[in-house]
Specification:
11% helix, 1 helix, 84 residues, SH3 type barrels
Length: 84
């Protein structure tokens, strides 16, 4: 059996759809609005196959969090990249 790793039209279409985070780039939420071990909605996907939610693990700085994203792994996220 051969695995076809080429992207389908649907995968490409999905990744373009998720670029709407640019409209929300300047978040009005403060860092205190988020808590460790809570799930947040990603405004951009790290890859077309990852989930659209992330589990916040800990603060990296006042504006950044270390997060775990299913089907992607750990990522460092700025607060403008996610919302409640």
């Amino acid at each position: 059996m051969k695995l076809d790793s080429s992207k389908s039209d649907h995968a490409i279409e999905s990744s373009w759809h998720n670029l709407n985070w640019l409209n929300k780039c300047f978040s009005t939420e403060s860092p205190e609005d988020f808590q460790a071990y809570s799930w947040v909605k990603l405004l951009e996907l790290p890859n077309p196959y990852s989930f659209d939610e992330a589990l916040l693990l800990c603060h990296v700085s006042s504006q950044e969090w270390l997060a775990w994203i299913p089907d992607h792994g750990e990522a460092q996220l700025h607060i403008s990249q996610f919302s409640h």
